[in-house]
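User: Please fill in residues for this 67-position structure.
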C-alpha cells in the first residue's frame, strides 16, 4: 500500500496544526490564570431575569437564621 505525496503532506499539515492548536490552548490557559476567577464583590443586589445576585442557599439560610 503506497500513499501519494499529497496525502502525506496533508496528514503532516493536519498534525502540525493539531500540535499548534493544543500548544496555543495550553499557553492561553496558563496566561489567563489557570481558570481562577477573581472575586468581584457586589455592593448592591441585582437580578438577571429570575436569578438573584446571591445563591439561593445563602438567601434561604439568612431567612431561617433570622426567624
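Assistant: Residues filled in for all 67 positions:
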Amino acid at each position: 500500500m503506497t500513499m501519494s505525496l499529497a496525502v502525506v503532506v496533508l496528514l503532516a499539515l493536519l498534525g502540525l496544526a493539531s500540535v499548534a492548536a493544543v500548544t496555543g490552548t495550553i499557553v492561553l490557559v496558563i496566561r489567563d490564570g489557570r481558570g481562577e476567577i477573581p472575586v468581584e464583590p457586589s455592593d448592591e443586589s441585582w437580578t438577571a431575569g429570575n436569578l438573584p445576585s446571591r445563591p439561593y442557599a445563602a438567601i434561604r439560610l439568612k431567612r431561617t437564621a433570622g426567624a
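For context: Helices lie at 5-31, 56-66.
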